[in-house]
């Protein structure tokens, strides 16, 4: 969750948005493979640390750092990430050198006009053959008032995302779209000029039962489209993703 939304969220009784929960589950599913029993992760633009907290719970051998320029000492001290994780608010405080096996850049690039600076920071912190997972909102024609409120500069098509990554020293391992059903919802909102009614993740007020049901549906959708993607069929969705690897050269 963006820290711009965090203050409202922490002072309320609402549960997390299904999109946010499912995105974290998808990231964790990509990490469940041989060779990832122990790893160090850098979550660049970690927000309130939710993704890191889920990694810490699921992977005993994981450790790492989260960076977000909006972190304050008060927020940082309130994040329960465990002894093997820390969060920082300055890039100079991130561990130097090739210290990380994995980089996370989850819905961050669309917030900055300095893509190169962000990608180079992560590239230089990754070990040889280290991997990075990137997600961004898809399709510029969907750009709306909601994006402006969230501080988005742009939305991406998949080819644009992969071109940016390869131009900065990453090899694409896997790429595609996520949240195909939510794209349909957003298209309906766009057609009928309901963009302003799109909820931010801190405005989700439904109960835990409905939230769990929607998360389960979204995750099943992800698995179904992963099968299609493995056969060369990439169905557009509300988000683009790329799993990439630091080039050896």
Tell me what you see in this structure.
- The chain has helices at 3-10, 18-31, 50-58, 73-78, 115-125, 145-150, 158-167, 180-191, 208-230, and strands at 38-44, 61-67, 85-88, 100-106, 126-137, 170-178, 239-246.
- It has a single domain, classed as Vaccinia Virus protein VP39 (Rossmann fold, 3-Layer(aba) Sandwich).
- The model has no long low-confidence stretch (mean pLDDT 89).
- The protein starts with a helix and ends with a strand.
- It has nine helices and seven strands, in the order ααβαβαββαβααβααβ.
- The chain has a seven-stranded mixed β-sheet with strand order 3-2-1-4-5-7-6, sandwiched between helices.
Quick synopsis:
This protein is of the alpha/beta class. The chain has helices at 3-10, 18-31, 50-58, 73-78, 115-125, 145-150, 158-167, 180-191, 208-230, and strands spanning 38-44, 61-67, 85-88, 100-106, 126-137, 170-178, 239-246. The mean pLDDT is 89.
Can you lay out the helices and strands and say which pair or pack?
Layout: H1 3-10, H2 18-31, E1 38-44, H3 50-58, E2 61-67, H4 73-78, E3 85-88, E4 100-106, H5 115-125, E5 126-137, H6 145-150, H7 158-167, E6 170-178, H8 180-191, H9 208-230, E7 239-246
Parallel strand pairs: 1-2, 1-4, 2-3, 4-5
Antiparallel strand pairs: 5-7, 6-7
Helix pairs in contact: 2-3, 2-9
């Amino acid at each position: 969750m963006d820290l711009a939304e965090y203050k409202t969220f922490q002072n309320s009784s609402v549960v997390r948005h299904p999109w946010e929960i499912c995105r974290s589950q998808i990231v964790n599913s990509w990490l469940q493979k041989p060779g990832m029993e122990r790893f160090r992760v850098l979550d660049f633009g970690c927000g309130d640390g939710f993704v890191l907290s889920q990694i810490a719970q699921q992977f005993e051998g994981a450790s790492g750092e989260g960076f977000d320029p909006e972190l304050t000492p008060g927020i940082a001290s309130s994040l329960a990430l465990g002894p093997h994780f820390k969060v920082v608010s300055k890039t100079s405080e991130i561990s130097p050198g090739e210290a990380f096996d994995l980089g996370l850049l989850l819905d961050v690039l669309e917030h900055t006009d300095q893509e190169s600076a962000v990608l180079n920071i992560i590239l230089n912190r990754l070990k040889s053959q280290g991997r990075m997972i990137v997600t961004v909102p898809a399709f510029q024609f969907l750009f709306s008032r909601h994006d402006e409120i969230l501080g988005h500069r742009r939305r991406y098509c998949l080819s644009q995302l992969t071109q940016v990554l390869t131009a900065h020293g990453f090899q694409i391992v896997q790429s595609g779209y996520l949240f195909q059903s939510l794209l349909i919802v957003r298209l309906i909102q766009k057609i009928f000029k309901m963009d302003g009614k799109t909820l931010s993740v801190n405005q989700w007020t439904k109960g835990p039962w409905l939230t769990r049901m929607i998360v389960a549906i979204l995750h099943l959708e992800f698995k179904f489209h992963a099968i299609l993607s493995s056969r060369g069929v990439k169905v557009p969705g509300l988000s683009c993703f790329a799993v990439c690897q630091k080039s050896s050269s």
